[in-house]
């Protein structure tokens, strides 16, 4: 462990400039996002100043709520990041989370065993991720198209299952609840009780970090992502890496759905409002975290603040919660422009040199 | 029976329009070497702005024009990002989709205090064929646009130049083609055609804006691009095939409820048909497709 920490320290010191650029990119994207958001709020007739002050103060006021909301998007963030590192675009985190949630719910209801339920959720997500990868590798189907189609297919299929098969006879707009024996509890901390699912998600992120940077599977994935041709030359199989990365990514999203059901919601509503959008938010989480599992832990908490802040803003000043989608959209667009920021930095540097 | 066939046929002609227009637009964009997966977002934002204008002026044609203009502006944004700023085209598209959805639904809630759908707005009049059957004038327009796009891309010099930018931009540049400008205009043109599709969704067809108005059609259009092997003529067939799945879903839903009296919950299962159909078609046909060589790679001048 200490050797890993030392290794990380050396890495940070040697790549100081890189990290600085990354930091500037992230900060600039967030500022741009909030700036455009303020213009939109103003145009729609809301007070942006009041709205943002609610966002930042209320978004961070309850640690347990903040970290609980961060849990599923941290895992869907990993679901996007891992395949991205291997060169695949997994925007199917949405449906991979759905199948993880519903499978876990069913297993929990029928067996009452949380471990079995989690394992089944991970397997379901991984299976769906793997299927998209297999279609890409063997049938040449673009993973973006396949993922979106699966998102809709499972959206409707699960709506059907919830309304027709799994509903709670006492509360018809809710699914059968997770039995108490299968529920994941809370852990007492100096900041109050925090749901255990958050720590499980953090452990998963650390595990993924370890797999990506300290194992041969992770190494092959990274090489395949950077250059499939070099990977082939080195004797690796880039197609195998695509499948591995999608299995891992899908598994993470499945775990996200599983933890959400077993440790936070304990039942699903029949409109799926508690699941919808978590996969798409994960894309923003991964991009803001620069596809780094450690970075994703923090960016998930940041996005959780945005989402909670959005809810609070709706209560206090009536701004629609979709403001969060809008902000995330602008931030993601801004994050697509690393070259622009590098140009800006080098422009400022040259200007400074000229002035000297 | 004949009535059913006519129902499916006329409705396919209605449903195919956005999928065809966006696919033809995307073919032009991708032939020039730029991927724009923000089609879904353009559909949403164009249909929303068309609805707003048609609602406030009472004029569907004005709404239609504004919807198209919003498409062009979206294309301009994507063009600047992917051509001049060398941004990641897929990430920019994903972000744009989220942005367009967010801002449209915010507008829906702020303007009309509605969470699901806007009030109805006047639509562009349809052409009545027989007493019960009608088609929109946009359907023949979309087909003419597809044929014109095919002729332009494959039979004219400027079309050849555009395709060169997507295959081998460096050679194109050495032949005197301005790769940056060609790609930029191709992206705007593609998004403009998608904007026509989006405006059609609200003021040409449904008559209101709804939260999930595009329902993945932008991505079905992307599937159509690959299905048609980047050829606008085949995209017409693709549009019909994918439009047909949509109509089939609705037809079966109606039949299941009226004739077989199947519980309403099953209608969710019928709604998966277009997506399963799309997935099946791309899994079977795409393998032989030939992608433009320089697709999605930013061109860097030496």
What's this, in brief?
The complex is a heterodimer of chains A (356) and B (302). With 356 residues, chain A is mainly α.
Care to describe what's here?
The complex is a heterodimer of chains A (about 350) and B (about 300). Chain A has about 350 residues and is an all-alpha fold. Chain A has 15 helices and two strands. Chain A has a two-stranded antiparallel ribbon with strand order 1-2. In chain A, strand 1 and strand 2 form a beta hairpin. In chain A, helix 2 (about 15-45) crosses helix 15 and helix 8 (about 195-215) packs across helix 9 (about 215-225). By secondary structure, chain B is mainly α. Chain B has one domain: ABC transporter involved in vitamin B12 uptake, BtuC (Orthogonal Bundle). Chain B has helices spanning about 1-30, 40-55, 60-85, 90-110, 140-155, 155-165, 170-175, 180-205, 215-225, 230-260, 265-270, 275-285; strands spanning about 125-130, 135. Chain B is globular, with a radius of gyration of 19 Å.
């Amino acid at each position: 462990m200490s050797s890993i920490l030392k290794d990380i320290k050396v890495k940070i010191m040697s790549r100081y400039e890189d990290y600085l650029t990354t930091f500037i990119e992230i900060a600039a994207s967030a500022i741009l996002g909030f700036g455009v958001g303020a213009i939109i709020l103003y145009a729609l007739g809301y007070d942006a100043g009041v709205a943002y002050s609610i966002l930042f103060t209320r978004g961070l006021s309850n640690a347990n709520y903040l970290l609980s909301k961060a849990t599923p998007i941290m895992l869907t963030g990993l679901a996007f990041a891992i395949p991205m590192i291997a060169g695949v675009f997994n925007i199917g985190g949405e449906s991979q989370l759905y199948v993880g949630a519903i499978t876990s719910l069913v297993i929990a209801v029928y067996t009452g065993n949380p471990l079995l339920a989690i394992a089944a959720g991970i397997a379901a997500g991984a299976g769906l991720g793997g299927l998209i990868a297999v279609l890409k590798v063997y049938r040449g189907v673009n993973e973006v198209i396949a993922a979106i189609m699966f998102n809709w297919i499972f959206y409707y299929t699960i709506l059907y299952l919830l309304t027709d098969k799994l509903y709670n006879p006492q509360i018809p707009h809710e699914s059968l609840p997770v039995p108490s024996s299968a529920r994941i509890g809370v852990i007492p901390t100096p900041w109050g009780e925090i749901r255990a699912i958050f720590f499980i998600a953090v452990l998963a992120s650390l595990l993924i970090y370890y797999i990506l940077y300290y194992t041969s599977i992770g190494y092959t994935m990274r090489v395949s992502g950077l250059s499939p041709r070099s990977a082939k030359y080195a004797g690796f199989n880039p197609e195998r890496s695509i499948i591995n990365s999608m299995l891992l990514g899908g598994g993470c999203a499945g775990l996200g759905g599983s933890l959400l059901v077993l440790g936070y919601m304990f039942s699903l509503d029949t409109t799926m409002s508690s699941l919808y959008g978590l996969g798409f938010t994960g894309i923003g989480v991964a991009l803001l975290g620069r596809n780094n599992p450690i970075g994703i832990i923090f960016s998930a908490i940041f996005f959780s603040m945005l989402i909670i802040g959005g809810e609070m803003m709706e209560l206090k000043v009536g701004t629609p919660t979709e403001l969060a989608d809008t902000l995330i959209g602008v931030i993601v667009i801004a994050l697509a422009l690393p070259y622009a920021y590098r140009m800006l930095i080098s422009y400022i540097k040259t200007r400074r040199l000229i002035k000297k | 029976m004949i009535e059913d066939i006519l129902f499916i046929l006329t409705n396919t002609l209605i449903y195919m329009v956005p999928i065809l227009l966006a696919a033809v637009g995307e073919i032009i964009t991708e032939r020039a070497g730029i991927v724009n997966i923000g089609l879904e977002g353009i559909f949403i934002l164009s249909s929303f702005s068309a609805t707003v204008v048609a609602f406030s002026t009472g004029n569907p044609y004005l709404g239609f024009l504004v919807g198209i203009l919003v498409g062009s502006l979206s294309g301009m944004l994507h063009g600047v990002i992917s051509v001049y700023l060398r941004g990641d085209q897929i990430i920019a598209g994903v972000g744009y989709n989220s942005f367009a959805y967010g801002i449209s639904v915010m507008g829906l809630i702020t303007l009309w205090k509605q969470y699901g759908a806007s009030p109805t707005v006047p639509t562009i009049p349809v052409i009545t064929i027989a007493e019960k059957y009608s088609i929109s004038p946009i359907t023949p327009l979309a087909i003419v646009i597809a044929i014109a796009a095919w002729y332009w891309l494959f039979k004219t010099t400027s079309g050849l130049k555009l395709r060169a930018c997507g295959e081998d931009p460096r050679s194109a540049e050495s032949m005197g083609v301005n790769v940056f400008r060609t790609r930029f205009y191709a992206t705007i043109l593609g998004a403009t055609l998608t904007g026509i599709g989006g405006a059609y969704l609200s003021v040409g067809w449904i008559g209101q804006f709804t939260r999930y108005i595009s329902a993945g059609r932008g991505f079905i259009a992307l599937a159509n691009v690959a299905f048609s092997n980047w050829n606008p003529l085949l995209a017409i067939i693709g549009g019909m095939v994918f439009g047909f799945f949509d109509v089939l879903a609705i037809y079966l839903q109606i039949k299941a409820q009226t004739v077989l009296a199947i519980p309403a919950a099953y209608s969710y299962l019928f709604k998966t048909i277009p997506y399963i159909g799309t997935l099946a078609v791309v899994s079977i046909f795409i393998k032989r497709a030939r992608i433009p060589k320089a697709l999605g790679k930013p061109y860097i001048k030496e």
